[in-house]
Specification:
Elements lengths: L27 H18 L8 H14 L7 E5 L5 H9 L3 E6 L2 H13 L5 E5 L12 E7 L1 H5 L6 H15 E11 L4 H7 L4 E7 L3 E4 L2 E4 L2 E7 L2 H11 L9
Parallel strand pairs: 1-2, 1-4, 2-3, 4-5
Antiparallel strand pairs: 5-9, 6-9, 7-8
Bound molecules: S-adenosylmethionine.
S-adenosylmethionine binds next to strand 2 and helix 5.
Family: Belongs to the class I-like SAM-binding methyltransferase superfamily. EFM4 family.
Subcellular location: Cytoplasm; Nucleus
Enzyme class: transferase
Amino acid sequence: MSSGGAAARSGEGSPGEGAFVPSALGTREHWDAVYERELQTFQEYGDTGEIWFGEESMNRLIRWMQKHKIPLDASVLDIGTGNGVFLVELAKFGFSNITGIDYSPSAIQLSGSIIEKEGLSNIKLKVEDFLDLSTKLSGFHICIDKGTFDAISLNPDNAIEKRKQYVKSLSRVLKVKGFFLITSCNWTKEELLNEFSEGFELFEELPTPKFSFGGRSGNSVAALVFQKMSSGEAAESSSSLLSSPIVYRN
Ligand SMILES: C[S@@+](CC[C@H](N)C(=O)[O-])C[C@H]1O[C@@H](n2cnc3c(N)ncnc32)[C@H](O)[C@@H]1O
């Protein structure tokens, strides 16, 4: 996976299992090494490092929040914040209740340094493994994921279980009727609908640039907004899911 490309598919696994070739990009060691390097570069040259999916991916999310008049005091959680540049953009836009978590201590240290250099306060940062939340993180109105679910899907150690745990953690931290904004280069819209079918429903698909390859055109990046259903709605929709099509992969 990179901000411009998708991870390789293994071609194995039963339908819907999402069989990616496991990769170092799914491990904490990888991200620790990345952000240690980026932290050093920031300290030496002031370069904030890579913005996953580019500037436009941040603008797209902020435009959506603006269009839907999300109040500036809404609580926002950035899951796997990396260098925290999206937190900076949210704060500059006026959001005042923002939290960034990442399981890499170097990522959180880098985010803290960038936020400090920008002269911003009121942004909460925490070293947290989203799959093993240690504190009482809950009650968020908005959760953002830019590339983190993608990274987790590449974990060499039981990625299927980790994806299930991700959905459980998301249910725990997001308020009922809260929004989950995910940007992914490894999963298609249909696959994401399948991954988040329990307890979440699609609210909107955000337009992303298309690319052509071998005469076929498609989206290289999927950006979707889900809304968390109440438990009553979720039960109703799970019975109707029985009649919905299953996504098969080659
Ligand atoms: C592809 S990077 C994206 C970083 C950032 N969201 C961005 O858009 O620039 C994936 C991030 O997810 C973090 N991450 C991966 N698994 C995680 C987990 N289980 N808990 C918290 N953070 C995780 C990594 O440390 C890394 O910062």
